[in-house]
Specification:
The protein is an all-alpha fold and about 80 residues long. It has 3 helices and no strands. Helix 1 packs across helix 3.
Length: about 80
């Protein structure tokens, strides 16, 4: 259950992305072509509790709607 509605979450994500990325990440722009297809995993290096997957999914969707984000655990799970 989210304490904020979808519009509020998206507004916060948009502001954070604008602050963090702005016109683009210089290193990424220099090293990768626009056609590059990448993959990655989030890996817990220490024990913890998963939180924020809804925000992660929305963030990737706002960056690029073709990103395929797959959750292997759910919020609240210990890892």
């Amino acid at each position: 259950m989210s304490l904020m509605n979808d519009d509020q979450i998206r507004k916060i994500i948009r502001v954070a992305l604008e602050e963090d990325i702005g016109n683009g990440d210089v290193t990424t722009l220099a090293l990768l072509s626009a056609e590059a297809i990448l993959s990655g995993d989030f890996v817990a290096k220490e024990p913890g509790v998963v939180a924020g997957l809804e925000v992660v999914s929305k963030t990737f969707g706002m960056i690029d709607g073709s990103i395929d984000f797959r959750e292997r655990v759910t919020d609240g799970k210990t890892v």
